[in-house]
Amino acid sequence: MTKEEELFSGGVAVITGAGAGIGMGLARRCGAIGMTVVVTDIDAARAEAVAADIRAAGGKAEAIRVDVSRPEALDVLARQVFDRHGAVRLLVNNAGIETLGYTWEIPAARWEATLNVNIHGIVHGVRAFVPHMLRAGQEAWIANLSSIGAFGQMPTQTAYIMSKHAIQSFSECLYLEMQVAGAPIHVSAVVPGMVKTSIFDPEAGQGEKGMGEPESAARHRATMAHMMAAHGMDLDEACRRFLARIAAGEFWVDSQPEMTRQSLDARAAFLTEQTAPALNETTRQLLGLG
Ligand SMILES: NC(=O)c1ccc[n+]([C@@H]2O[C@H](COP(=O)([O-])OP(=O)(O)OC[C@H]3O[C@@H](n4cnc5c(N)ncnc54)[C@H](O)[C@@H]3O)[C@@H](O)[C@H]2O)c1
């Protein structure tokens, strides 16, 4: 029996943005090891399809439409899940959107959405669920989706990159808050390098009208999608690793340790040497600068 089966089987998992990508992969893995999975997503049909797949494979799952950019929706979700299923053992704050383009060309609505989904969606997930977890008094796990982008600079992905820096920092402080409070809650920062998902699909994160990226972003998005298809890690393999390491109580949960190491080394050098931000070879390639 694996560590995650031993600790998580029979428990309740709540995952945001679980209608596709990493959230979906984690939901399937949680279902396969015997958790009751609450599959939430802004897209109700996608969430239902994932929950139906889990049930068809013999697992337990329920789909609920939740837009994480609305704090009150997370309050309702937390109450609903604790009332219906009892204590939540695993909360994965996963929902996130990419936004590409020059800062000054991105519509205000898209800026707001990026910060609301990527930062506030996670902050309010924690704010809504932790009081219920503390009252339940049982050991619990919270995993927040950070990114390898949390350690670097990427021009024209500024909104996304700054949101991930924020979530990395939020998760580090939250980890310590649990110690200060003596709470039986483990906190992990999940740091995917590149995992094959739909995040660079042209329509991803478009949401409401007026949230479109500038036209200049389309080429960058296509390059990123191509790189992800060519070099990304298999989704199920990544999610299997993530869940095992979350269960082990690790704070750092990455998919491709060598990529993480490279980024951290570059970040450490940038900070200790206090150089100006510089366009490196990889960044130039991704931006099509030759
Ligand atoms: N795929 C990667 O290589 C990678 C790398 C680093 C970090 N991440 C992070 O992993 C997380 C998942 O990304 P992914 O690659 O699986 O993306 P994805 O686009 O494949 O899936 C994201 C899901 O989130 C949902 N979503 C979007 N806005 C939402 C909202 N307001 N409320 C609820 N759900 C919403 C979407 O409908 C979609 O189902 C994100 O936080 C992302 O930043 C991914």
Automatic annotation (TrEMBL):
InterPro entries: NAD(P)-bd_dom_sf (IPR036291), SDR_fam (IPR002347). Gene3D superfamilies: NAD(P)-binding Rossmann-like Domain. The keyword Membrane does not apply. This is NAD(P)-dependent dehydrogenase (Short-subunit alcohol dehydrogenase family). It holds the Pfam family adh_short. One of its GO terms (molecular function) is oxidoreductase activity. It comes from the Bacteria. Keywords: Oxidoreductase. GO terms for cellular component: membrane. Belongs to the short-chain dehydrogenases/reductases (SDR) family. It comes from Sphingobium jiangsuense. The keyword Oxidoreductase applies.
